[in-house]
Amino acid sequence: VGTLALAALIIPGSTGGRLSEWLCNLSRVGPTFRKLIGAVRIYRSKLGIVAFTVVMSVVSHALFAVTIYLASHGLPGNSPGFIEHLIIVPLAMVTGVLPLPLSGLGAFEGVLDYLYRHVSTGGPEVLKGQGLMTALTYRAITIAIAIVSSVFYLGHQKEVSDVMHDAEAEAA
């Protein structure tokens, strides 16, 4: 549905007309719609950049699936196969942004645990809690990466500041 909506927006003339004008003239959200429609008009002329961004997004989601697949195989117990992870992980990540109450778990953790047990191609049975342990392992990995990145950033803060200053000077 999202792909179809984006494709419809890229079609010339889809951001002009009465509907666009009406959306832009709404009292509270009109300025936001005006900015969004302006962005669509700009990106319509840069379809190569849009396509490259879509490819980067697909690769990024595939790498998330690989990370969680490898984390699950580093833990004891059974887990779904790689192809199942390409289905399970994006679904769990999408629900991770929703404030769902799942017995005290975060939405990502709860959905990953549920999908681990219910999405299977006939392999060995995945026990309850295996998806939760995998999700917690993934979270621990991301926290460890953030700590290492923070140490690097704080240790090189002057150099980062100099680079940011140079980039701002070039942009101006």
What do these coordinates show?
The longest helix is centred in the middle third of the chain and has 27 residues. The chain is extended, with a radius of gyration of 22 Å. The chain is mainly alpha-helical and 172 residues long. Helix content is 73%, strand content 0%. It has eight helices and no strands.
Compact summary:
The chain is built from eight helices and no strands. With 172 residues, it is mainly alpha-helical.
Write the topology of this structure.
Blueprint: H1 2-10, H2 18-24, H3 30-44, H4 47-73, H5 82-95, H6 107-118, H7 130-155, H8 157-171
Helix pairs in contact: 2-3, 4-5, 4-7, 5-6, 6-7
Which bin fits the share of residues in helices? over 70%
Report strand %. under 5%
Contiguous low-pLDDT stretches (5 residues minimum) are none
How would you spell out the order of helices and strands? HHHHHHHH
Q: Mean pLDDT, nearest integer?
A: 85
What does the main sheet amount to?
none
Sheet/helix structural class: mainly alpha
Report how far apart the termini are: 39 Å
What would you report as the Rg, rounded to the nearest angstrom? Answer: 22 Å
Q: Got a strand count?
A: 0
Basic shape = extended
The tally of helices reads 8
Name the descriptors:
172 residues; mainly alpha
